[in-house]
Amino acid sequence: MLPQCFRHRLLATSSIGRRSIFSSSLLVSQTTLCSNYRPVRINCQIRQCSSSNPDTESKRKVTLNELRRKQDDSKFLFNWRSALTALGLGGIVLAIMFRVRQQKDAERLKRQRAAIGKSMIGGDWELVNQDGQLQGTKDFLGKWLLLYFGFTHCPDICPDEIEKMIKVVEMTEADKETLPIIPVFISIDPERDTAERVKKYIKDFSNKLIGFTGTKEQVDKVAKTFRVYHSQGPRNAEDDYIVDHTVIMYLIDPDGKFIDYYGQNRTASEIAEVIKLQQLKFDLGKKKGWW
């Protein structure tokens, strides 16, 4: 048997050895764990990075490039479409403005021509009435006149137009807002239409109608004043003839000036309405002149 002291030393030594062995084994195990842990993490990282497929990446790049190219193309097309739309709208607006300008210019030119034409039509005149007395512009100042040029041997046109003129006068008299109008017949056939014949002729239409004639020089002068065309046709075996002439009624205002004219295509009601408007315009012009 070992001595007591040596036994205690041996136990202590064995316990220290065990502790050292345990601590060394623990250290080894920790070292093993640490050494084993790091490669695993590194290997995981390597797998994650190496898990991507090169073909997939290239496809993704191609897809992104296509999307960008399509976006660029859409922007390019959008810009061109916007530009073409703007140009189209601008062209339409310019065409409309040009058309309106043409219409305004045409209307202005028409008014200018009408004003020039009116200034060239009408003036002072004097003829022999159905009673054989000289009468003219000065005797009708302050009154509205409606003149018609014709001849008593006219087969149909003159009677129709004179009847229409009388109807216009009656319509204006029935309208309280319209001033009375004097109907006037002027012959352009002085060779046959004497004062007596004119007096007899106008009685068949209305007692309101006043007739005029005169010498060839007097009639030609009045016809020229109102720009009335008249031409004697060929004579037949009975020494009869037809006079070709302008078929127009002339409206004269109270100042003795020419205002308007009405052709054969106008109806009596249309002429009456236009005369009413002309009278209103004349009155408004006078009122403005007073102020």
Automatic annotation (TrEMBL):
<feature type="binding site">
    <location>
        <position position="245"/>
    </location>
    <ligand>
        <name>Cu cation</name>
    </ligand>
</feature>
<dbReference type="InterPro" id="IPR003782">
    <property type="entry name" value="SCO1/SenC"/>
</dbReference>
<dbReference type="InterPro" id="IPR017276">
    <property type="entry name" value="Synth_of_cyt-c-oxidase_Sco1/2"/>
</dbReference>
<dbReference type="Pfam" id="PF02630">
    <property type="entry name" value="SCO1-SenC"/>
</dbReference>
<feature type="binding site">
    <location>
        <position position="158"/>
    </location>
    <ligand>
        <name>Cu cation</name>
    </ligand>
</feature>
<keyword id="KW-1015">Disulfide bond</keyword>
<feature type="binding site">
    <location>
        <position position="154"/>
    </location>
    <ligand>
        <name>Cu cation</name>
    </ligand>
</feature>
<feature type="domain" description="Thioredoxin">
    <location>
        <begin position="114"/>
        <end position="280"/>
    </location>
</feature>
<dbReference type="GO" id="GO:0006878">
    <property type="term" value="P:intracellular copper ion homeostasis"/>
</dbReference>
<keyword id="KW-0472">Membrane</keyword>
<keyword id="KW-0143">Chaperone</keyword>
<dbReference type="InterPro" id="IPR013766">
    <property type="entry name" value="Thioredoxin_domain"/>
</dbReference>
<keyword id="KW-1133">Transmembrane helix</keyword>
<keyword id="KW-0479">Metal-binding</keyword>
<comment type="similarity">
    <text>Belongs to the SCO1/2 family.</text>
</comment>
<dbReference type="InterPro" id="IPR036249">
    <property type="entry name" value="Thioredoxin-like_sf"/>
</dbReference>
<keyword id="KW-0812">Transmembrane</keyword>
<feature type="transmembrane region" description="Helical">
    <location>
        <begin position="78"/>
        <end position="98"/>
    </location>
</feature>
<keyword id="KW-0999">Mitochondrion inner membrane</keyword>
<keyword id="KW-0186">Copper</keyword>
<protein>
    <submittedName>
        <fullName>Thioredoxin domain-containing protein</fullName>
    </submittedName>
</protein>
<dbReference type="GO" id="GO:0033617">
    <property type="term" value="P:mitochondrial respiratory chain complex IV assembly"/>
</dbReference>
<dbReference type="GO" id="GO:0016531">
    <property type="term" value="F:copper chaperone activity"/>
</dbReference>
<comment type="function">
    <text>Copper metallochaperone essential for the synthesis and maturation of cytochrome c oxidase subunit II (MT-CO2/COX2) by facilitating the incorporation of copper into the Cu(A) site of MT-CO2/COX2.</text>
</comment>
<dbReference type="GO" id="GO:0005743">
    <property type="term" value="C:mitochondrial inner membrane"/>
</dbReference>
<dbReference type="GO" id="GO:0005507">
    <property type="term" value="F:copper ion binding"/>
</dbReference>
<keyword id="KW-0496">Mitochondrion</keyword>
<comment type="subunit">
    <text>Homodimer.</text>
</comment>
<feature type="disulfide bond" description="Redox-active">
    <location>
        <begin position="154"/>
        <end position="158"/>
    </location>
</feature>
